[in-house]
Design brief:
Keywords: Hydrolase. The protein is of the alpha/beta class. It is built from eight helices and seven strands. It has a seven-stranded mixed β-sheet with strand order 1-3-2-4-5-6-7, sandwiched between helices.
């Protein structure tokens, strides 16, 4: 298998190259999110862990590229790209939509014989509990109101009508992918799953997040943090948990 080590891949951003790292953490953004969301994570985990931040099409420097149609399409493309980064073990961290995509990517990597060491599933209902709340069908005003309610979107985006107008197509497409995702009965991971959630998350109840344990034959762990859907913003506790867990895997 040819191994990619460059940073020209449109799907992957490496903010801090760490040649001595024994493991890579693939970080998948939320709906409307970009790879840059994980810059602080990359900075905090270097040099022991090298972060590969996924950049979805339709945002930032990929703004002119076609959006992915659904979770399956995104997972197909991301898994294919990651097969070129398997000279070191991979772990996956996905928040919200990124957790669902991470689950599907992990399935594909396991089928290819290069499964991840662990999937961190953050702020997202378990795959079999996905439901369509109709957010992607709201008018622009309703979608914007939902984004403000959930938090997590840069204030510079929310307060600039021109930037917001450019961002809305990708945001709506991401919500559509998240809400129309169809779990296939019987799909099961063998890698460990670690589910994380904020205690005030209006979109992911504790019961729905605990159900991630039903989607792996490997070990399962669960952790609740204070905060809402974006409980992880600036959280040193989350970084510490991920760092310690990955260190144990590497050790």
């Amino acid at each position: 298998m040819a191994v990619r080590s460059d940073t020209t891949d449109p799907w992957i951003r490496v903010f801090h190259s760490s040649p001595e790292a024994e493991l890579r953490l693939v970080c998948l953004p939320h709906a409307g999110g970009a790879a840059s969301y994980y810059f602080p994570v990359s900075a905090a985990l270097k040099p022991s862990v090298e972060v590969l931040a996924v950049q979805y099409p339709g945002r930032q420097e990929r703004r002119s590229e076609p959006l992915f149609a659904d979770v399956a399409e995104a997972a197909d493309r991301i898994a294919d790209e990651l097969k070129g980064w398997t000279d070191r073990p991979l772990a996956l961290f996905g928040h919200s939509l990124g957790a669902t995509i991470g689950f599907e990517v992990a399935l594909r990597l396991e089928r290819a014989g290069v499964g991840p060491r662990v999937l961190f599933a953050s702020g997202r209902r378990a795959p079999a509990r996905t439901r369509n709340d109709g957010i992607h069908s709201l008018p622009d005003s309703g979608l914007i109101a939902e984004m403000k309610r959930m938090g997590g979107t840069d204030a510079a985006v929310m307060d600039d009508p021109d930037i917001l107008a450019m961002a809305l197509p990708a945001i709506r497409s991401d919500y559509r992918a998240a809400e129309t995702y169809a779990y296939r009965d019987g799909d099961m991971l063998s890698c460990p799953v670690y589910a994380l959630v904020g205690d005030g998350d209006a979109r992911a109840s504790l019961e729905d997040v605990k159900a991630w344990g039903e989607h792996t034959t490997g070990s399962f762990d669960f952790r609740v943090f204070p905060g809402g859907h974006f409980y992880l913003n600036g959280s040193t506790e989350v970084i510490a948990l991920v760092r310690d867990h990955l260190a144990a895997l590497s050790g």
